[in-house]
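One chain shown below:
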Amino acid sequence: MARKEIKTLIFNTALDLAEENGWERLRLRQVAERLNIALTDVNSHFRDLDAVANFWFGGALDAMLAPTDEDFAGRETRERLRILLLRWFDSLAGHRRVTREMLDVKMYAAHPHHWVPMIFNLSRLIQWLRDAAGLDAGGRRRQIEEIGLTALFLATLAVWSRDGSPDQERTRRFLDRRLCRADSVMVRLFGRG
């Protein structure tokens, strides 16, 4: 089996076990036992459970950055942002509870080695979002976009993490309202264009 296939198998097994027992109760030795492989084999792909979580969130970033249709660049900014953000959230929706548990563990106060890198990962996510959405402004506008998109993402994440509505409709409505409000603010500050 190829290295990438083994890594995916280890990850999927970890996710299955987390669905069964919760992320906080998951141990990598359980993954090794379930797959009948040595713990060193798991370690060669994931240094710890935080790395497993990072792999999961990396997949969400890949989903957000997947190729878009031909008319994507011609859409309004808020529609481009909506499409990209929903790709991120939709890719994780099948394991929402476990995703929330991953984030809870990452934010545990006694684990600064997890939450400090999470700040940098959030910043990278926002930079990729700006780039994929075609937001090329510099200076003050860029700073406002970065702050606004970070706040928008975190607020939407809070709604999404508890959203049990069909097709995440509550999250979609929340995101639409916030994007509309953000668009109005940007127009007031910088005009159209």
